[in-house]
Amino acid sequence: MHTHGGGGSSFNDADTAVAVARITATHRAHGTTTMLASLVTGPIDEFDQTISALAGLVATGVLAGIHLEGPWLSPVHRGAHDENLLRVPDAESVDRLMHAGRGTVRMVTIAPELEGGLAAVRQIVGFGAVAAVGHTDANYDMTRQAIAAGATAGTHVFNAMRQIHHRLPGPALALLEDPAVFAELIADGVHLHPDIVRFIIESPSRPVLVTDAMAAAGADEGDYKLGALDVRVSSGQARLADGTIAGSVLTLSDAVRYAVHTAGVPTEVAVRAATQNPADMIGLVDRGRLAAGNRADLNVLGAGLRVTATLQAGRWVTCVGD
Questions:
Q1: How far apart are CA 191 and CA 105, in angstroms?
Q2: Is 82 a catalytic residue?
Q3: Model's pTM, two decimal places?
Q4: What's the distance, Cα to Cα, between the start and end of the chain in Å?
Q5: Is the N-terminal amide bond of 266 cis, ω within 30° of 0?
Q6: Which residue, among 145, 210, 209, has the nearest Cα to 178 in the 3D structure?
Q7: How many whole angstroms separate alpha carbon 180 and alpha carbon 170?
Q8: Which of 212, 254, 297, 322 is catalytic?
Q9: Count of CB atoms within 10 A of residue 49's CB?
Q10: Is 243 exposed, middle or buried (0-12, 13-18, 19+ CB in 10 A)?
């Protein structure tokens, strides 16, 4: 549900078709059968064009939809987003980008405390997309207001948001205490301590394992771009020059293994967080669980929960390198 790239390519790349082919092939080789294309903040004219190009690939079934991570994010918790490209969620820009997707934008990350933020949450939900609270300086009460306005998800909870304090509980507590909220988490040993991984998964919210992968996932370490920003990938970590985490090189099968083997999450719970919960989050009723009439997607797991083969839409895919 939250992947920016892989195989050396990014969904923000100019050659959309080539990028999508590389990214989906990379993550499919590690067991991912369904994917949203997540975009990092860019100039709004380029954003418009990229969304439109990706929408065509959603229509063909290559992608399940588009996730806009930006441009309506908090400068205080911008993470690896160019501060100069962030903006408040005015009704016109929201309308423009949602229409560019022609119904394929399935999820939007937004900081609800920004001017017009709550109205934008309602606007996004009105388009039939999931409004996710993330990259935010919202306090507990504002987050509760966003949920009341229709937000149903938290983007990589604890990362790029105001932290929990015993007098100022912040957005994470509001998200994790609500059983109607889907809580994204990045289980890679970099973004979250393993006890926090387990804490999120055991919370009343519905946990969703995501990768937040950037172009270096499944590719060599070195120098990359994430949107407009330079990223150095070294020792399995993607960071900006100032040390800010800039996505990950994670695959979803790695996330499941980390949750089980390092964080101590029961296997069936970790698998649900990578399959059924994310499908439910964006309303994909034909996948995410094994049931008669659903799309025939499944993974065969061998020793150490490693993917040995994948069935995607009824076609066997041999996994390489996992």
A1: 26
A2: no
A3: 0.95
A4: 20
A5: no
A6: 145
A7: 18
A8: 212
A9: 15
A10: exposed
